[in-house]
Amino acid sequence: MAAKEHTYKRRQVYVKKGFQFRFMLRFCLVILFGAGISTALLLVFSQGTLTSSFQDSRLVVRETSMAILPAVLYTNLINLGLISLASILVTLFVSHKIAGPLYRFELELQRIAEGDLTRDIHLRENDQITDIAKSLNSMTGSLNGKVGDIRTTVAQLAQTATDSQDATALARQLAGLEQKIDATFKLER
Fold it and tell me: What is the percent of the chain where pLDDT is above 90?
């Protein structure tokens, strides 16, 4: 059976909302933490120095850390907003490359668990974990072949039972089928 080429395009922004939200939130918290650390370090390193400036036509001399604090805070707030927005967009895109395939895996594996061994998992070309999808497709194909072999043997057994009244021949074939199943699958007993 030739593999069909499918192209899947993103249809929704959030695939796994909880995962993607936590992913973006953690990224933004790291950025906020970094902005806080850089502000604190700048203020600490500027302590012990004086800065002179003109305010309302008066010369004002004060500690450098207090003189630059408003400008540092405004600059960090603007940078935090812009970088957080960019980070949200980037993490949304990156998380889609992870969450999208995981969502597709969940759907397809549920169908396979229900017994549909004809399912193949198709991912977008640049998605992550495409190697796992190929391995799962190989596993499903292998299981499909093995179950098909067992079905063929069962059909032969049914034909033998119909054609002959020899119970020992049928018992031998059933024992052979049981051995084939045991050799093909590792099953709990």
Answer: 2
Q: How far separated are the first and last CA of the chain, in Å rounded?
A: 34
Would you state the structure tokens that stand for residue 48, as one six-digit string? 């012990």
Encoded amino acid at 121, one letter = I
Burial of 95 (0-12, 13-18, 19+ CB in 10 A): buried
Is residue 51 within 8 Å of residue 68, measured between CB atoms? yes
Pairing of β 50-55 and β 58-63: antiparallel
- Domain edges within the chain: 10-128, 130-189
Q: What is the mean pLDDT of residues 119-133?
A: 79
User: Which one-letter amino acid corresponds to residue 56?
Assistant: D
* pTM summary value: 0.53
Contacts of 128 (CB under 8 A, 6+ apart): 97, 98, 101
| Interatomic CA distance for residues 129 and 121, integer angstroms | 11
Please give the sequence-ordered ranges of beta strands (E in DSSP) within the chain, or none if there are none: 50-55, 58-63
CA–CA distance, 4 with 84 (Å, rounded to integer): 40
